[in-house]
Design goal:
CATH superfamily of the largest domain: Isopropylmalate Dehydrogenase
Oligomer: single chain
Bound molecules: nicotinamide-adenine-dinucleotide
CATH class of the largest domain: Alpha Beta
Order of helices and strands: EHEHHEHEEEEHEHEHEHEEHHH
Helix content: 40-55%
Radius of gyration: 20 Å
Distance between the termini: 21 Å
């Protein structure tokens, strides 16, 4: 298969981990070509714009993008580039797998949970925010729609079906937030009936937090609204040892953007010690999306094998004494076997 994807190296450690990731993709012989475009601080410096129109055009043309972390300048009226991308392409599903890997510091082994978070509405957007003149009263509203709930719940069930997953848990707070969370839960119950082979469970968000910490093995796929998904997906990343191995996908009807969950790590940028695995796992999810699942699986296996057998080559955050480059060398050797 030959396919061109948009590649956004990003800021800080972005170019280093992107370089490592593309080396592994090339070694896999995926038939991918790369159209490099700028976003973030590098784009502001070069083109006077954090998110140039040409970058949006390139993502739209290829419909799939692999993105490094972007720095949004603090203050100065800059809004988050990631939020802009989600809005522009209506990337309604944020998919975040949390999978255990060997050699990570975590409380549990063998975790495999996917959080599917609604990405375009709900409390997270904090629409209609006001603060009274005396500064004593703040208001924000929550907008949840039937169509928005339908498409995210359907996405979660379709994904579960295609990946052979057994259970979908809809997480809500419908007992208290009866309108918006209630609508989401009603829709989830309706759609679940269309997938009788997949177990459906509903769970209140506070109980979900406790259950995830006490017995995470009861979860398989979690589907939830924007703000709950934001919090729960980080909780799940914590269960498997933090953000070092946490990929994220933002999926829309016409475009999808795959990225690492972590940021641009300015404290270690340019030092050749950034761990490329989160971006590489995002690339593996991108290959699944492009129906190259066998290649995606090879990436995940290679990471597992290098973490188990070549610890001296992995980066310090994973307990190794290697560099981004030596980590990439080991991964390239592994996928080329
Ligand atoms: N998706 C994105 O584009 C995204 C996400 C989060 C933060 N950001 C941006 O990134 C910048 C820095 O944010 P932050 O410091 O809060 O979070 P961060 O994730 O960049 O860094 C937090 C800590 O984790 C470490 N770390 C992160 N990724 C690592 C990796 N691959 N290998 C080894 N160590 C790693 C860093 O060194 C730092 O100590 C901010 O400008 C923020 O806006 C972007």
């Amino acid at each position: 298969m030959s396919k061109t994807i948009a590649v956004i190296p990003g800021d800080g450690i972005g170019p280093e981990i992107m370089n490592a990731t593309l080396r592994v993709l090339d070694a896999l012989d995926c038939g991918l070509s790369y159209d490099h475009v700028d976003a973030g601080m590098i784009a502001l410096d070069k083109h006077g714009d954090l998110l140039p129109a040409a970058t949006l055009g390139t993502i739209a043309r290829h419909s799939v993008a692999l993105k490094g972390p972007l720095t949004t300048p603090i203050g100065g009226g800059f809004s988050s580039i990631n939020v802009q991308l989600r809005r522009h392409f209506d990337l309604y599903a944020n998919v975040r797998p949390a999978i255990s890997f060997p050699g990570t510091r975590s409380r549990f082994d063998n975790i495999d949970i996917i959080t599917v978070r609604e990405n375009t509405e709900g409390a997270y957007l904090a629409e209609g925010q006001t603060l009274s003149e005396d500064g004593e009263t703040a208001l924000s509203s929550i907008r949840v729609t039937r169509s928005g709930s339908e498409r995210i719940v359907r996405y979660a069930f379709e994904m579960a079906r295609s990946k052979g997953r057994k259970k979908v848990t809809a997480v809500h707070k419908a007992n208290i937030i009866k309108t918006s969370s209630g609508l989401f839960l009603d829709v989830a119950r309706e759609i679940a009936k269309e997938y009788p082979e997949i177990e459906f469970q509903e769970m209140i968000v506070d109980n979900t937090c406790m259950q995830l910490v006490m017995n995470p093995y009861q979860f398989d796929v979690i589907v939830t609204t924007n703000l709950f998904g934001d919090i729960l997906s980080d909780l799940c990343a914590g269960l498997v040892g933090g953000l070092g191995l946490a990929p994220g996908a933002n999926i829309g009807k016409d475009a999808s953007i795959f990225e690492a969950v972590h940021g641009s790590a300015p404290d270690i940028a340019g030092k050749n010690i950034a761990n490329p695995c989160a971006l590489l796992l995002a690339a593996a999810d991108m290959l699944d999306h492009l129906e190259m699942t066998e290649k995606g699986t090879r990436i995940r296996r290679a990471i597992r094998s290098v973490l188990e057998n070549a610890r001296e080559q992995v980066t310090p955050d994973m307990g190794g004494s290697g560099t981004t480059e030596s980590f990439a060398d080991a991964l390239v050797a592994e996928v080329s076997r």
